[in-house]
Design brief:
single chain; 501 residues; alpha/beta; eight-stranded parallel beta sheet; two-stranded antiparallel ribbon
Length: 501
């Protein structure tokens, strides 16, 4: 594999964007990505300010995993990332927006090239560039090199949209989908110090890990889409893939797990023979494979990127099962003292919902589930808080924010231009999508290219940024600022220590 230079100079430059300012409580580090609002205007006349995020306190994540190979060279020491402030101002930013009127379907979204030009132009006009990383693309498949889409259709002409531009870096994650492309993803990631690899089995590609003759040898006479209880469906799978994946994870300390997930629209589900249980069996196989990969990610403390289409109910069901299994494993002593550690360590350090297509209600369901995992001591106290006075409720809210800062964020929500904008054609789907984007707390929003060619990474990510900014009624500046910081925080969870009880 091609050797790549150390990222130490890059992270050295990252440290230069941190300004020490004296404060009554001691030294505070301030982080700024953009210093000017002049060119990045709001996508809508109505916008909410998230400017305080640019000056929230930062936490230094020391002791980053030392890279053991070129494809893991992305992470180095010296990365500064934000930890949630417990002040009222920042706490307000973490609340879910539910009381504002829904914006109309996005009709004035900037094109990807227009969005990228706006970002780079604004950065070029800064007196001193404070942040070399312009965007973080948390999901794509550029290692597949299946042909350009954005670069060839955006009227780019002879322009080269490079994610390696030293003044406008785009950090990206390339996600494998099957054991058949794991090596390709690792090789592609070794080409640049700004690419991080992710390996997993996508729910569309379970046929790559199905035994060739198992189904024939266990043929059932059923002709309906129902599970046959007397057959252990796990024997349908080639389990070598799981041990191989764990071996690769052990060798690559900065490897993410993904793309994994659940999908009722997968051809694998739609065409699974009814003689073997049809869709019901196919979905259960997806669930088994997804759960195994989630457990592996939790064991090795690796974040995951999750595909979920028309299966959010099954996803929540599966995650709830994992939660209940962790609760059952607690001894009486642990239930008194260490429940939070047991539950937290049963899950990956961070979960990114890729190109999220769920509803705002499902966003809330996942956040409620997160609360049950990260803050079990708070579950069941909601009623008491409601009956308390305003001062008491505010005190509880501040306590929750402090707890969240200590334990981190579990769920992130990513959006892509291709899936959430181009492929979203009906007015109902557009409205549902916009409502979901608006519901996402600002510190959980991610942007993704979801492209299949390296030349499309920049424009795909910029397009996602334009869509998210338009849907939320915010400026490109604000969304670029928050999503970049969120993306780096998601990546930094590779280094998490979770909780010790």
């Amino acid at each position: 594999m091609m050797l790549v230079p150390s990222l130490q100079p890059v992270f050295g430059s990252l440290q230069t964007i941190i300004k020490r300012q004296s404060a009554s409580s001691g030294i505070i580090y301030r982080h700024r990505i953009f210093q000017s609002d002049s060119l990045l205007l709001a996508s809508s006349a109505k916008r909410r300010s998230f400017g305080q995020l640019a000056s929230s306190d930062l936490k230094y994540f020391a002791g980053m995993n030392e890279p053991s190979c070129p494809c893991c060279s992305f992470l180095g020491k010296g990365l500064f990332l934000p930890c949630g402030d417990t002040s009222d101002e920042v706490a307000a930013e973490r609340t879910i927006v539910t009381d504002e009127p829904l914006l109309a379907a996005a009709v004035d979204v900037l094109s990807p090239s227009e969005a990228w030009e706006a970002i780079t132009s604004a950065r070029a006009n800064l007196a001193q560039l404070q942040q070399p990383i312009a965007l973080v693309d948390t999901h794509g498949h550029p290692h597949l090199e299946r042909g350009a889409e954005y670069a060839s259709q955006e009227g780019a002409g002879d322009k080269v949209f490079s994610f390696n531009d030293p003044k406008n870096l785009v950090v990206s994650i390339t996600c494998a989908v099957s054991p058949l492309d794991w090596n390709a993803a690792l090789e592609y990631a070794s080409r640049s110090q700004y690419i991080l690899p992710a390996l997993g089995v996508h729910p569309w590609y379970l046929h790559d890990i199905i035994k060739d003759h198992t189904v024939e040898n266990n043929k059932d006479e059923s002709t309906t889409d129902e599970l046959t209880p007397h057959i252990n469906i796990e024997q349908y799978l080639k389990w070598e893939w799981l041990s191989t994946l764990e071996m690769i994870i052990s060798q690559h300390p900065n490897l993410i797990v993904g793309e994994i997930g659940l999908c009722k629209m997968a051809r694998f589900v739609r065409e699974f023979p009814k003689a073997f249980g049809g869709k019901a069996t196919a979905l259960q196989l997806q669930k088994v494979v997804f759960k195994k990969q989630m457990e592996l990610a939790a064991k090795w403390k690796r974040p995951v990127t999750v595909h979920c289409v028309n299966a959010h109910g099954l996803l929540i069901e599966t995650l709830t099962e994992m939660l209940n299994e962790a609760l059952e494993s607690c001894s009486k002593e642990e239930k008194n003292d260490g429940t939070r550690a047991t539950l937290r360590n049963a899950f990956p350090p961070a979960i990114a919902m890729h190109s999220f297509t769920g509803t705002s209600h499902q966003v809330q369901q996942l956040l409620d589930l997160e609360k049950s995992i990260l803050h079990p001591e708070q579950v069941g106290k909601v009623g008491n808080r409601k009956r308390g006075g305003k001062k008491q409720r505010k005190q509880h809210q501040n306590e929750e924010k402090k707890a969240e800062c200590n334990t981190g964020i579990l769920f992130y929500f990513g959006f892509s231009h291709n899936v959430n904008y181009i492929m979203c054609t009906s007015e109902k789907a557009k409205r549902k999508g916009i409502e979901a984007v608006q519901t996402i707390p600002s510190d959980r929003l991610l942007v993704e290219s979801d492209v299949h060619a390296s030349v499309d990474v920049v424009l795909g990510t910029a397009g996602a940024l334009a869509y998210a900014a338009n849907a939320r009624g915010e400026s490109l500046k604000d969304v670029a600022e928050s999503s970049t910081r969120n993306g780096l925080r998601f990546i930094s969870s590779l280094n998490s220590r979770l909780v010790d009880g």
